[in-house]
Hints:
By secondary structure, this protein is α/β, with parallel strands linked by helices. It is built from 17 helices and 15 strands. Helix 1 (29-43) links the parallel strand 2 and strand 3 (47-54).
Amino acid sequence: MNERQGEPKRGNLRILIAHSHYGDYVVGGEGAVMSAEADMLAQHGHEVLRFERTNAQRMGKGLINFIDTARHMYWSPQAYEEIGAVMDEFRPDVLHVHNYHISLTPAVFVAAKRRGIATVMTLHNYRLICPTGQFLRNGKICESCLEGGWAWRPILSRCYPGGGLVKTIAAVHQHRLTKKDKRLADRIDAYIALTNFAAKKHVGAGIPASQMHVKPNFMADPFAGREPSSSGHGAVYLGRLSPEKGVDVLMRAWRGIDYPLSVIGDGPDMGALRAMAPPQVTFTGQLDKRGVLERLEAASFLVLPSLWYEGFPLVLVEAMACGLAIIATDLGGRAEIVPADAGLMCEAGNAASLATAIKTLIGDPALCVWMGENARRFFLERFTAEPNYERLIEIYSAALGHARSSHSEC
Length: 410
């Protein structure tokens, strides 16, 4: 799937955006960010071409398919040839990769560098420095692979999301190949981390600090022309219902709390969570974008009980855009996204700590409204399109400069 958009203006850039979808072109968080950035760049006059593939094409069942996927885990001749042909026709200034996992592989960077194209990679997760991409094992933060030691440790613990042995082996295999190939850093001119926390983790693992840049995710203001309601009632959880999200901790924390909670989303833990949920909890399943915004605007605060670092949870930005106070676990870069006057932090995995924060906001409606107003103001200052565009262009300029200097040294 190659999709061209934008009419180029003199002095503007040709940008090839590459992304490998995890499902059959299902647009998850990373895909949504990729699409939003592509649209934003096109709206500013740059010529943008999307090069999209899906892992569903590679992750079929059966031993033969698994062997073929493993053989091409780090180098896909097909992706190299296909994106090379696109580059020869489109002649981009910049290749911006959001996810190369499985379908694209680092071969896309080689194709770009052999044509003198500047390269940028967004670090949506921690896959470059952790086989599972999450730094999570048995519901707890784990950085053992970052610290070194036995490379195949994750296979014993099956810490890949879902615990599947085959996927764990594949993830560890790709991680080992990435670590062994020291040339990957030479093929990427600029890395984009979504928070300072993530940037420090990757630099600490060996990525050059000079090539590391920090740029948050963003979204268009859903209330352009008006302000969201500040008289909502009830709490919201929005996200996937899977073990790393900590929704089971939220269910335990909600016991004895006489206040409505809407759980928006779906996932493998839906049945178990319904079974343990107190009567004040309502499960809506998946909602479309409009339905989500309506639920958020009608609420008073959002809860993010996640057990892992996360990359940059867009749900926080959505809630802040709607003027909601935030309760989140104190992991990763959450404190960079949610300032102290816009929400409360609690200990990950600790139902009592989470319950205390919840009861604080329920018991003090004025505090909840004040935090929501601050969250809305912070969103407008930091997480809308215009400041994000300016930062992205700065990063592209740095990548182009690095590519030129690297080429002159060859």
